[in-house]
Write a structure and sequence with these properties.
single chain, 451 residues, alpha/beta, Serine Threonine Protein Phosphatase 5, Tetratricopeptide repeat, Collagenase (Catalytic Domain), 2 domains, six-stranded mixed β-sheet
Length: 451
Protein backbone atom coordinates (compact mmCIF):
# COMPACT_ATOMS: atom_id res chain seq x y z
CA UNK A 1 0.00 0.00 0.00
CA UNK A 2 1.25 3.46 -0.87
CA UNK A 3 0.11 5.70 1.99
CA UNK A 4 -1.45 9.12 1.56
CA UNK A 5 1.09 11.66 2.77
CA UNK A 6 1.07 15.42 2.89
CA UNK A 7 2.58 16.24 -0.53
CA UNK A 8 6.28 16.94 -0.15
CA UNK A 9 6.05 19.91 -2.53
CA UNK A 10 2.94 21.50 -1.05
CA UNK A 11 2.81 25.06 0.29
CA UNK A 12 6.29 26.20 -0.63
CA UNK A 13 5.21 29.75 -0.03
CA UNK A 14 3.23 29.25 3.15
CA UNK A 15 5.88 31.13 5.09
CA UNK A 16 5.85 34.12 2.74
CA UNK A 17 3.45 37.06 2.51
CA UNK A 18 0.91 36.87 -0.29
CA UNK A 19 1.06 39.45 -3.10
CA UNK A 20 -0.56 42.72 -2.06
CA UNK A 21 -1.95 43.58 -5.49
CA UNK A 22 -3.54 41.68 -8.33
CA UNK A 23 -0.66 42.52 -10.62
CA UNK A 24 -0.20 40.57 -13.87
CA UNK A 25 3.11 38.76 -14.08
CA UNK A 26 5.43 38.22 -17.04
CA UNK A 27 4.47 34.54 -16.89
CA UNK A 28 0.94 35.44 -17.88
CA UNK A 29 2.36 37.01 -21.04
CA UNK A 30 4.34 33.96 -22.10
CA UNK A 31 1.85 31.24 -21.11
CA UNK A 32 -1.40 31.70 -23.06
CA UNK A 33 -1.78 27.91 -23.25
CA UNK A 34 0.12 25.08 -21.61
CA UNK A 35 2.67 23.16 -23.70
CA UNK A 36 2.49 19.37 -24.21
CA UNK A 37 3.23 16.98 -21.37
CA UNK A 38 6.91 16.08 -21.06
CA UNK A 39 8.08 12.60 -20.10
CA UNK A 40 11.44 11.12 -19.26
CA UNK A 41 13.52 9.16 -21.74
CA UNK A 42 15.96 6.39 -20.80
CA UNK A 43 16.19 5.60 -17.07
CA UNK A 44 19.49 6.03 -15.24
CA UNK A 45 19.26 3.85 -12.12
CA UNK A 46 22.32 3.91 -9.88
CA UNK A 47 23.57 0.50 -8.74
CA UNK A 48 23.17 -0.29 -5.02
CA UNK A 49 25.99 1.22 -3.01
CA UNK A 50 25.70 -0.70 0.25
CA UNK A 51 27.38 -3.84 1.53
CA UNK A 52 25.82 -7.20 0.76
CA UNK A 53 25.59 -7.91 4.47
CA UNK A 54 23.31 -4.90 4.88
CA UNK A 55 21.33 -5.83 1.76
CA UNK A 56 20.78 -9.37 3.09
CA UNK A 57 19.32 -7.96 6.30
CA UNK A 58 17.15 -5.57 4.28
CA UNK A 59 15.91 -8.43 2.07
CA UNK A 60 14.86 -10.51 5.06
CA UNK A 61 13.08 -7.64 6.81
CA UNK A 62 11.32 -6.67 3.58
CA UNK A 63 10.30 -10.20 2.61
CA UNK A 64 9.19 -11.60 5.96
CA UNK A 65 7.14 -8.78 7.44
CA UNK A 66 4.11 -6.73 6.49
CA UNK A 67 4.01 -2.93 6.81
CA UNK A 68 1.95 -3.38 9.97
CA UNK A 69 4.85 -5.24 11.59
CA UNK A 70 3.21 -8.68 11.39
CA UNK A 71 5.53 -11.54 10.47
CA UNK A 72 5.13 -13.51 7.26
CA UNK A 73 5.86 -17.22 7.81
CA UNK A 74 7.25 -18.07 4.38
CA UNK A 75 8.51 -16.53 1.15
CA UNK A 76 5.90 -16.31 -1.60
CA UNK A 77 6.37 -15.39 -5.27
CA UNK A 78 5.07 -16.21 -8.73
CA UNK A 79 6.36 -19.33 -10.45
CA UNK A 80 6.93 -19.35 -14.20
CA UNK A 81 6.09 -16.54 -16.65
CA UNK A 82 4.11 -13.64 -15.19
CA UNK A 83 1.28 -12.10 -17.21
CA UNK A 84 -0.27 -8.70 -16.59
CA UNK A 85 -3.36 -6.92 -17.90
CA UNK A 86 -4.89 -3.44 -17.46
CA UNK A 87 -8.56 -2.69 -16.78
CA UNK A 88 -10.47 0.54 -16.33
CA UNK A 89 -10.17 4.03 -17.73
CA UNK A 90 -6.54 5.09 -17.52
CA UNK A 91 -4.75 8.13 -18.98
CA UNK A 92 -2.58 7.57 -22.03
CA UNK A 93 0.58 8.08 -19.99
CA UNK A 94 -0.05 4.85 -18.06
CA UNK A 95 0.58 2.68 -21.13
CA UNK A 96 3.98 4.23 -21.83
CA UNK A 97 4.97 4.24 -18.15
CA UNK A 98 3.96 0.60 -17.80
CA UNK A 99 5.87 -0.47 -20.91
CA UNK A 100 9.01 1.29 -19.65
CA UNK A 101 8.67 -0.38 -16.26
CA UNK A 102 8.12 -3.84 -17.74
CA UNK A 103 11.22 -3.39 -19.90
CA UNK A 104 13.24 -2.51 -16.79
CA UNK A 105 11.84 -5.48 -14.87
CA UNK A 106 12.89 -7.79 -17.70
CA UNK A 107 16.35 -6.32 -18.26
CA UNK A 108 17.37 -5.26 -14.73
CA UNK A 109 15.52 -7.76 -12.50
CA UNK A 110 15.54 -10.63 -14.99
CA UNK A 111 11.79 -11.27 -14.69
CA UNK A 112 9.77 -13.12 -17.32
CA UNK A 113 6.84 -10.67 -17.36
CA UNK A 114 4.62 -9.53 -20.23
CA UNK A 115 1.29 -7.88 -21.02
CA UNK A 116 -1.77 -9.91 -21.97
CA UNK A 117 -5.47 -9.31 -22.59
CA UNK A 118 -6.52 -12.64 -21.09
CA UNK A 119 -8.89 -12.80 -18.11
CA UNK A 120 -6.57 -15.25 -16.33
CA UNK A 121 -3.65 -12.79 -16.07
CA UNK A 122 -1.53 -13.27 -12.99
CA UNK A 123 -1.64 -9.55 -12.18
CA UNK A 124 -4.50 -7.20 -13.01
CA UNK A 125 -4.00 -3.44 -12.84
CA UNK A 126 -7.35 -1.69 -12.45
CA UNK A 127 -7.60 2.08 -12.81
CA UNK A 128 -10.32 3.43 -10.51
CA UNK A 129 -11.10 6.73 -8.81
CA UNK A 130 -9.41 7.92 -5.64
CA UNK A 131 -12.81 7.80 -3.96
CA UNK A 132 -13.15 4.11 -4.90
CA UNK A 133 -9.78 3.38 -3.30
CA UNK A 134 -10.45 5.33 -0.12
CA UNK A 135 -13.80 3.64 0.39
CA UNK A 136 -11.82 0.41 0.74
CA UNK A 137 -8.67 1.71 2.47
CA UNK A 138 -9.02 5.31 3.71
CA UNK A 139 -5.27 5.68 4.34
CA UNK A 140 -4.19 4.44 0.90
CA UNK A 141 -3.39 6.27 -2.32
CA UNK A 142 -3.23 2.87 -4.08
CA UNK A 143 -2.85 -0.76 -3.02
CA UNK A 144 -2.36 -4.39 -4.05
CA UNK A 145 -4.38 -7.40 -2.90
CA UNK A 146 -3.93 -11.17 -3.35
CA UNK A 147 -6.37 -13.69 -4.81
CA UNK A 148 -8.62 -11.16 -6.57
CA UNK A 149 -8.75 -9.70 -10.08
CA UNK A 150 -10.85 -6.56 -9.68
CA UNK A 151 -12.29 -4.16 -7.13
CA UNK A 152 -15.68 -5.87 -7.00
CA UNK A 153 -14.01 -9.12 -5.95
CA UNK A 154 -11.93 -7.26 -3.38
CA UNK A 155 -15.05 -5.67 -1.85
CA UNK A 156 -16.55 -9.11 -1.29
CA UNK A 157 -13.34 -10.63 0.06
CA UNK A 158 -12.01 -7.64 2.02
CA UNK A 159 -12.67 -8.92 5.55
CA UNK A 160 -12.06 -12.60 4.80
CA UNK A 161 -9.05 -14.90 4.77
CA UNK A 162 -9.01 -14.75 0.95
CA UNK A 163 -6.97 -11.53 0.97
CA UNK A 164 -4.87 -12.35 4.04
CA UNK A 165 -1.21 -12.15 3.01
CA UNK A 166 -0.06 -14.20 6.02
CA UNK A 167 -2.00 -17.24 4.75
CA UNK A 168 -0.53 -17.06 1.24
CA UNK A 169 1.85 -19.83 0.19
CA UNK A 170 2.25 -19.02 -3.52
CA UNK A 171 1.29 -16.02 -5.63
CA UNK A 172 -1.03 -16.90 -8.47
CA UNK A 173 -3.46 -13.99 -8.86
CA UNK A 174 -3.23 -10.40 -7.60
CA UNK A 175 -4.86 -7.07 -8.34
CA UNK A 176 -3.38 -3.57 -8.18
CA UNK A 177 -5.70 -0.58 -7.79
CA UNK A 178 -4.40 2.75 -9.13
CA UNK A 179 -6.12 6.16 -9.06
CA UNK A 180 -7.09 7.38 -12.53
CA UNK A 181 -8.10 10.90 -11.48
CA UNK A 182 -4.73 12.12 -10.30
CA UNK A 183 -1.57 13.39 -12.00
CA UNK A 184 0.33 11.14 -14.42
CA UNK A 185 3.28 11.12 -12.00
CA UNK A 186 1.18 10.02 -9.02
CA UNK A 187 -0.27 7.20 -11.10
CA UNK A 188 3.21 6.17 -12.25
CA UNK A 189 4.56 6.33 -8.71
CA UNK A 190 1.75 4.07 -7.51
CA UNK A 191 2.43 1.72 -10.42
CA UNK A 192 6.09 1.32 -9.49
CA UNK A 193 5.50 0.74 -5.79
CA UNK A 194 2.47 -1.54 -6.07
CA UNK A 195 3.84 -3.67 -8.91
CA UNK A 196 7.10 -4.10 -6.97
CA UNK A 197 5.09 -5.32 -3.97
CA UNK A 198 2.87 -7.52 -6.12
CA UNK A 199 6.03 -9.24 -7.38
CA UNK A 200 8.21 -9.14 -4.29
CA UNK A 201 8.51 -7.75 -0.75
CA UNK A 202 5.41 -6.45 1.01
CA UNK A 203 7.12 -4.40 3.71
CA UNK A 204 8.51 -0.86 3.77
CA UNK A 205 11.53 0.21 5.82
CA UNK A 206 12.26 3.81 6.78
CA UNK A 207 15.94 2.91 7.20
CA UNK A 208 16.34 2.47 3.42
CA UNK A 209 17.60 5.68 1.78
CA UNK A 210 17.72 4.29 -1.76
CA UNK A 211 14.43 2.49 -2.29
CA UNK A 212 10.73 2.82 -3.05
CA UNK A 213 10.25 0.28 -0.25
CA UNK A 214 10.13 3.22 2.15
CA UNK A 215 7.01 5.06 3.30
CA UNK A 216 8.71 8.47 3.12
CA UNK A 217 7.78 8.44 -0.62
CA UNK A 218 11.01 10.25 -1.56
CA UNK A 219 11.93 7.70 -4.23
CA UNK A 220 9.07 7.26 -6.66
CA UNK A 221 10.52 4.99 -9.37
CA UNK A 222 12.28 1.68 -8.77
CA UNK A 223 15.95 2.14 -7.94
CA UNK A 224 18.98 -0.03 -8.59
CA UNK A 225 18.62 -1.43 -5.08
CA UNK A 226 14.98 -2.32 -5.72
CA UNK A 227 15.83 -4.15 -8.93
CA UNK A 228 18.52 -6.13 -7.11
CA UNK A 229 15.99 -7.13 -4.43
CA UNK A 230 13.55 -8.33 -7.10
CA UNK A 231 16.28 -10.18 -8.99
CA UNK A 232 17.24 -11.95 -5.75
CA UNK A 233 13.58 -12.65 -4.97
CA UNK A 234 13.27 -14.68 -8.18
CA UNK A 235 16.73 -16.26 -8.07
CA UNK A 236 16.79 -20.06 -8.61
CA UNK A 237 18.33 -20.50 -5.15
CA UNK A 238 15.00 -19.49 -3.57
CA UNK A 239 11.52 -21.02 -3.84
CA UNK A 240 8.01 -20.67 -2.50
CA UNK A 241 7.49 -21.80 1.08
CA UNK A 242 11.02 -21.11 2.35
CA UNK A 243 11.28 -19.85 5.92
CA UNK A 244 13.29 -16.80 6.96
CA UNK A 245 16.10 -19.03 8.24
CA UNK A 246 16.23 -20.99 4.99
CA UNK A 247 16.41 -17.83 2.89
CA UNK A 248 19.00 -16.30 5.22
CA UNK A 249 21.26 -19.32 4.72
CA UNK A 250 21.22 -18.87 0.92
CA UNK A 251 21.45 -15.09 0.69
CA UNK A 252 25.23 -14.60 1.16
CA UNK A 253 26.22 -16.68 -1.87
CA UNK A 254 23.21 -15.46 -3.86
CA UNK A 255 24.07 -11.77 -3.33
CA UNK A 256 27.76 -12.41 -3.97
CA UNK A 257 26.74 -13.78 -7.38
CA UNK A 258 24.28 -11.00 -8.22
CA UNK A 259 26.14 -8.05 -6.68
CA UNK A 260 29.88 -8.80 -6.44
CA UNK A 261 30.69 -5.13 -5.74
CA UNK A 262 28.75 -5.36 -2.49
CA UNK A 263 31.18 -7.95 -1.14
CA UNK A 264 33.89 -5.34 -0.66
CA UNK A 265 31.89 -2.58 1.03
CA UNK A 266 31.81 -1.83 4.73
CA UNK A 267 28.55 -2.59 6.53
CA UNK A 268 26.62 0.34 8.07
CA UNK A 269 23.95 -1.65 9.92
CA UNK A 270 21.54 1.17 10.71
CA UNK A 271 19.47 0.47 13.80
CA UNK A 272 15.78 -0.44 13.65
CA UNK A 273 13.12 2.24 13.34
CA UNK A 274 10.84 2.18 16.41
CA UNK A 275 7.12 2.00 15.85
CA UNK A 276 6.56 5.12 17.96
CA UNK A 277 8.60 7.21 15.47
CA UNK A 278 6.75 5.70 12.50
CA UNK A 279 3.40 6.46 14.12
CA UNK A 280 4.46 10.04 14.82
CA UNK A 281 5.58 10.59 11.21
CA UNK A 282 2.39 9.07 9.83
CA UNK A 283 0.27 11.31 12.07
CA UNK A 284 2.30 14.36 11.08
CA UNK A 285 2.14 13.75 7.32
CA UNK A 286 -0.84 11.44 6.85
CA UNK A 287 -4.55 12.20 6.60
CA UNK A 288 -6.99 12.82 9.42
CA UNK A 289 -5.09 15.11 11.81
CA UNK A 290 -5.49 18.86 12.24
CA UNK A 291 -2.60 21.36 11.96
CA UNK A 292 -1.83 21.50 15.69
CA UNK A 293 -1.91 17.71 16.05
CA UNK A 294 0.36 17.37 13.02
CA UNK A 295 2.91 19.75 14.53
CA UNK A 296 2.85 17.93 17.87
CA UNK A 297 3.41 14.63 16.07
CA UNK A 298 6.33 16.12 14.11
CA UNK A 299 7.82 17.36 17.39
CA UNK A 300 7.54 13.84 18.82
CA UNK A 301 9.24 12.35 15.77
CA UNK A 302 12.10 14.84 16.03
CA UNK A 303 12.49 14.23 19.77
CA UNK A 304 12.61 10.47 19.19
CA UNK A 305 15.15 10.82 16.38
CA UNK A 306 17.34 13.00 18.59
CA UNK A 307 17.07 10.71 21.61
CA UNK A 308 17.97 7.70 19.44
CA UNK A 309 21.16 9.50 18.44
CA UNK A 310 20.35 9.24 14.75
CA UNK A 311 22.48 11.17 12.30
CA UNK A 312 21.19 9.42 9.17
CA UNK A 313 18.43 10.26 6.69
CA UNK A 314 15.73 9.51 9.28
CA UNK A 315 16.97 12.35 11.48
CA UNK A 316 17.01 14.58 8.40
CA UNK A 317 13.47 13.55 7.46
CA UNK A 318 12.31 14.39 11.00
CA UNK A 319 13.65 17.93 10.60
CA UNK A 320 12.14 18.18 7.13
CA UNK A 321 8.69 17.17 8.40
CA UNK A 322 9.01 19.66 11.26
CA UNK A 323 9.92 22.44 8.85
CA UNK A 324 7.02 21.61 6.53
CA UNK A 325 4.51 21.80 9.35
CA UNK A 326 5.81 24.96 11.05
CA UNK A 327 6.58 27.17 8.07
CA UNK A 328 3.12 28.77 8.07
CA UNK A 329 3.29 29.76 11.75
CA UNK A 330 7.04 30.17 12.41
CA UNK A 331 9.04 30.62 9.18
CA UNK A 332 12.30 31.28 11.02
CA UNK A 333 12.08 28.02 12.93
CA UNK A 334 11.07 26.19 9.74
CA UNK A 335 14.13 27.54 7.92
CA UNK A 336 16.38 26.26 10.70
CA UNK A 337 14.79 22.81 10.42
CA UNK A 338 15.26 22.76 6.64
CA UNK A 339 18.90 23.76 7.09
CA UNK A 340 19.34 21.00 9.69
CA UNK A 341 17.71 18.49 7.33
CA UNK A 342 20.15 19.47 4.59
CA UNK A 343 23.13 19.05 6.93
CA UNK A 344 22.07 15.56 8.01
CA UNK A 345 21.27 14.51 4.46
CA UNK A 346 24.65 15.83 3.32
CA UNK A 347 26.41 13.58 5.84
CA UNK A 348 24.50 10.44 4.81
CA UNK A 349 25.00 8.36 1.65
CA UNK A 350 22.40 7.90 -1.10
CA UNK A 351 20.50 11.10 -0.28
CA UNK A 352 20.97 13.16 -3.43
CA UNK A 353 17.25 13.16 -4.19
CA UNK A 354 16.34 13.91 -0.57
CA UNK A 355 18.52 17.03 -0.65
CA UNK A 356 16.76 18.20 -3.81
CA UNK A 357 13.46 18.24 -1.91
CA UNK A 358 15.03 20.33 0.84
CA UNK A 359 16.61 22.58 -1.79
CA UNK A 360 13.16 23.57 -3.02
CA UNK A 361 12.32 24.85 0.46
CA UNK A 362 15.65 26.62 0.94
CA UNK A 363 15.42 28.26 -2.48
CA UNK A 364 11.87 29.42 -1.70
CA UNK A 365 13.11 31.13 1.46
CA UNK A 366 15.95 32.78 -0.48
CA UNK A 367 13.52 34.11 -3.09
CA UNK A 368 11.25 35.42 -0.35
CA UNK A 369 14.21 37.39 1.00
CA UNK A 370 14.86 38.76 -2.49
CA UNK A 371 18.18 36.88 -2.72
CA UNK A 372 18.02 35.60 -6.28
CA UNK A 373 21.71 34.72 -6.45
CA UNK A 374 21.49 32.39 -3.44
CA UNK A 375 18.33 30.79 -4.79
CA UNK A 376 19.98 30.14 -8.16
CA UNK A 377 22.98 28.54 -6.49
CA UNK A 378 20.76 26.23 -4.42
CA UNK A 379 18.59 25.23 -7.38
CA UNK A 380 21.45 24.72 -9.83
CA UNK A 381 23.19 22.43 -7.33
CA UNK A 382 20.16 20.14 -7.01
CA UNK A 383 18.07 20.29 -10.16
CA UNK A 384 19.99 17.48 -11.87
CA UNK A 385 18.95 15.02 -9.17
CA UNK A 386 15.26 15.66 -9.84
CA UNK A 387 15.80 14.79 -13.52
CA UNK A 388 17.97 11.73 -12.83
CA UNK A 389 15.37 10.27 -10.47
CA UNK A 390 12.52 11.09 -12.88
CA UNK A 391 10.59 13.33 -10.51
CA UNK A 392 8.76 15.74 -12.79
CA UNK A 393 6.91 17.54 -9.98
CA UNK A 394 10.16 18.31 -8.18
CA UNK A 395 11.92 19.19 -11.43
CA UNK A 396 9.14 21.61 -12.45
CA UNK A 397 9.15 23.19 -8.98
CA UNK A 398 12.89 23.77 -9.05
CA UNK A 399 12.68 25.20 -12.57
CA UNK A 400 9.92 27.61 -11.53
CA UNK A 401 12.02 28.66 -8.55
CA UNK A 402 14.98 29.19 -10.86
CA UNK A 403 12.79 31.38 -13.07
CA UNK A 404 11.95 33.63 -10.11
CA UNK A 405 15.60 33.72 -9.07
CA UNK A 406 16.55 34.84 -12.59
CA UNK A 407 13.90 37.55 -12.46
CA UNK A 408 15.41 38.80 -9.20
CA UNK A 409 18.91 38.90 -10.70
CA UNK A 410 17.79 40.98 -13.68
CA UNK A 411 17.48 38.33 -16.41
CA UNK A 412 13.77 38.51 -17.37
CA UNK A 413 14.06 36.89 -20.80
CA UNK A 414 15.90 33.86 -19.47
CA UNK A 415 13.42 33.76 -16.57
CA UNK A 416 10.50 33.56 -19.02
CA UNK A 417 12.23 30.82 -21.01
CA UNK A 418 12.93 28.65 -17.95
CA UNK A 419 9.39 29.12 -16.64
CA UNK A 420 7.87 28.13 -19.97
CA UNK A 421 10.16 25.10 -20.17
CA UNK A 422 8.98 23.98 -16.73
CA UNK A 423 5.32 23.73 -17.73
CA UNK A 424 5.56 20.46 -19.69
CA UNK A 425 7.14 18.80 -16.67
CA UNK A 426 4.54 20.39 -14.41
CA UNK A 427 1.73 18.91 -16.50
CA UNK A 428 3.16 15.42 -15.89
CA UNK A 429 3.98 16.10 -12.25
CA UNK A 430 0.89 18.03 -11.12
CA UNK A 431 -1.70 16.91 -13.66
CA UNK A 432 -4.63 19.18 -14.42
CA UNK A 433 -4.00 22.58 -15.99
CA UNK A 434 -5.49 24.34 -12.96
CA UNK A 435 -2.98 22.54 -10.70
CA UNK A 436 -0.09 23.61 -12.92
CA UNK A 437 -1.23 27.22 -12.91
CA UNK A 438 -1.80 27.13 -9.16
CA UNK A 439 1.76 25.89 -8.59
CA UNK A 440 3.12 28.63 -10.84
CA UNK A 441 1.13 31.32 -8.99
CA UNK A 442 2.27 29.90 -5.66
CA UNK A 443 5.92 30.18 -6.62
CA UNK A 444 5.51 33.59 -8.23
CA UNK A 445 3.99 34.86 -4.98
CA UNK A 446 7.32 34.25 -3.26
CA UNK A 447 8.99 36.96 -5.36
CA UNK A 448 8.89 40.29 -3.45
CA UNK A 449 9.09 42.20 -6.75
CA UNK A 450 5.67 40.82 -7.69
CA UNK A 451 3.95 41.68 -4.44
Amino acid sequence: MRPILLPLLLALGACMPAPQADQPSRAALVEPGLPPVKTFAAPHPAPPSRANGDIARDFLDLAFKLESGRDLPVLTRFEGPITLRVLGHAPRTLASDLNRLLYRLRTEAGLDIALTDRDDAAITIQAVTRADIRRQLPQAACFVAPNVSNLAQYRLARRTSVVNWTLLRERKRLAIFLPNDTSPQEMRDCLHEELAQALGPLNDLYRLPDSVFNDDNVHTVLTGFDMLILRAYYAPELRNGMTRAEVAARLPRLLARLNPAGEHREMRALGPTPRVWIDAIQTALGPGAGPAERRRAAERALQIASSMGWTDHRRAFSHYAMGRLTQAVDPGSALRDFQAADRFYASAPDTELHRAYVAAQLAAHAIGRGDGAAARQIVDRNIGAAARYENAALLATLMMLRAEALALTGEPDLSDSVRLDSLGWARYGFGADWAVRAKMREIESLNPLKG
